[in-house]
């Protein structure tokens, strides 16, 4: 008989700190059935890794509310790299990876450092008189939006449009969504798609050294290009995934550093630990907690048989605290070298933007440590009220 979990992913207890509850569940069974969600949940690294890599488990997007048409929101998923499987996924990923391979990450490396320092200047101005600074609104929030905007080629005058669109759209990935949030997400998707169509039209006439121009120019081996819907969807995905993940790694990670002063001091004293420290930030408090797949054939995950049509979700936060893989998994260690976390996924859906995210996160943390030697929490951060995307909405600090 399968183990049935009663874990409520939307409860205050889980949203506040899911990891002790994951540990309790992990001792019962690696894979458990959730009656309320109508899907299997994994609680171990091995089970989550198997889910992410199994080719009989696919990303199959279907409208959650078929009686409530949301055409713009549907558009940015039907044509998405994240929501497709081979052969469509193979073609899309090859084209997108080809465009990324044109040196955009290296091109952005100095610009990311400049953007981080510019935002740090603003933080310094805000906190110069001893006032409290919200590190999310002043630093962690704006930085990834500006980086993605630079990557895509969005003019600086339009940067302010992007974050509200992203915030509205990603709320739809939670399991408790209101009618007002649905309406806001559809409006945001419609406005974002319209904006990107206009920008694509401009770049077709006058290409520049940005990713949109590279995506327009990229041609597959058989002569295929991205359709306009695929191009627009790819740009939307890069903003939503790139922005949300990065801001939450910084928010969660800086919180971890400031509440573990011995680890903060170790990182300050050892510049060569920056790379491992960023990986630990991702592992310790994962910005994405859950990733769904749907079975297209009978699939064994551990001792559980997932039947065609059934869903199974890899709980990434649980996987990244599995004691079978990580020594002292609940300890935050910036010098952790053996760190096969699943924060960027695994298998064919491994995050295509991972190299950019690592550069951005390292630059962000490096700048904070260098510019603010007295950085400290003023009061506990305010946590987001959602489970799937885990982060803080406010991080009050003194500098």
Summarize the structure.
The protein has 399 residues and is of the alpha+beta class. The protein has 16 helices and 13 strands.
Describe this entry's structure for a reader.
The model has no long low-confidence stretch (mean pLDDT 92). α4 crosses α10 and α12 (228-258) crosses α14. The protein has a single domain, classed as Cytochrome P450 (Cytochrome p450, Orthogonal Bundle). The N and C termini lie far apart (55 Å). The chain is an alpha+beta fold and 399 residues long. It has helices at residues 12-16, 19-28, 45-53, 71-78, 88-100, 104-127, 135-140, 142-152, 159-170, 179-205, 211-217, 228-258, 261-269, 274-284, 316-319, 354-371; strands at 4-5, 31-34, 39-42, 57-58, 133-134, 290-295, 299-301, 304-306, 311-315, 376-377, 382-383, 392-394, 396-398. The protein contains 16 helices and 13 strands. The radius of gyration is 21 Å and the shape is globular. Strands 1-2-3-9-6-4 form a six-stranded mixed sheet. A three-stranded antiparallel sheet has the order 5-13-10. The longest helix is centred in the middle third of the chain and has 31 residues, at 228-258.
